[in-house]
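Q: Hi! First time asking for a complex rather than a single chain. Here are the components, and I think there are two in total. Is that enough to go on?
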Amino acid sequence: MKLLTYNFLTSKCIKKVKVGYPLKLNIMEQKVESTNFNPEFIQRVLPRLDWSAIKIAADSVGCQGFPDEINLETSTNDTELLQKLHHLLLEIEVVTGSLICPETNRIFPITNGIPNMLLNEDEV
Amino acid sequence: MSDSEISDEDNTENFIENPTRELLAEGLLSLFTPIVENLDSKVKQTVLVQLNINAQLDILSSVIKDQINKQNKQDTSEFDIALRNLNAIKSKVTVITNVLHSSSSSKFIVSNIMETPSYSHLTSNDYNHVYEPAEDTFLLIDALEQDLSSIQASKPLLTLEIGSGSGIVISALAKYLTHQTHGFYAVDINNYACNATKRTAIANNVNVETINMDMLTAFKYNSIDLLIFNPPYVPTSTSLSTCEDKEPRATVEQEKFYDIEADTIFVKDNQEKMLIKSWAGGDDDGCQVINRVLGELDNILAPNGVFYLLLIKDNNPEKIRKRLKSFGYNSIQIIDRKIRGEHLLVLKIFKNLL
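A: Yes, that's all I need. Here is the structure of the assembled complex.
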């Protein structure tokens, strides 16, 4: 699971969970796979990022230098920030770990890079 | 349907089941590609030569015209004949140049075909757990290929396939668009299918983010720009669910629709349930799972999102299109194919007129 994916996952599907976002992130095994930097993709994905999740992701993998808040107008031309985001979102693969619902602490395991977001019938 | 009922038209499609088809196609492609490329460079060279000749002839004819004028119409008959000959040659050269130009553009069409991703790494054991690519899979790939230029122009940020199974549809698209975007996603309720999708993506050198999920229940709303779904579309005699709630849970009991193989693979374990889930569409025209996605479409798609949905005629596509219209979606049928008693088609569904 790349950390871009983490930005899009919620536990809102659990019964009685109000927001379910951002999930807690627990990384046991990670690897880095370099990909070509495509600034346009990062620029276009920027408005869809939830900065609270990005900060959690960056802290979890020890990527530093991310601002506390994001200013969409200035960030879109900030090549250094775009490059950092490219690395954080697209190059770090979470192989093993878990995602945890912030409200219920329900654990969703990540195995072989695949998060398991399935719920039991009594949870929905 | 028994063999005797298969018409000639249907029979011609049977080659699709031939396991060596992919191998043959690959072999033929590898044979043809260098030849076509070689031909293309030759054609280009010839075009250049022809253009050069054309220019030279232009110069020559103007020189001759000058000569004629200078000679004050003395002895012009010889020059006239020569001039006419030259003009005839010139028009022939132009015709040849045009022919060469058009053959160049056919080469372009050949190179624009979307390659079927390799999936030879999947074995028959995998297909005990995961839906094996079949006619419906290839029709969906063909539909996306046909619509490729509009897909590229729409610049999807996130492309997601629901129920990716073997993963060849999303990998096919990722292979083609990977230089443009990185957001390829696959979800499947079957963990085995998730692994197969991941393996197919890796075998084709693309990244497809794979999530084990029921539909898009754990995905942020309104994120998907391009949605693809080859649903379980086969109408079955009973509901998929014996529960009170609307969600199909594949608590499939001994169903009539499953009689043929019931003695050998009656639902014993979860994986077999999963395999049934990959094709059984329930009793509502086979639309139980399709309807779940349609009901959630407003939450799934990003603004201007587009949805490619494979259906069978038995699903009553007109009813589905009316339902879509009622909540503001346009739809067009972009491809259809009749294969052994199944009439398959793909709808392209979108909110705004493109």
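A: Chain A has one domain: 3-116. Let me know if you'd like any chain examined more closely.
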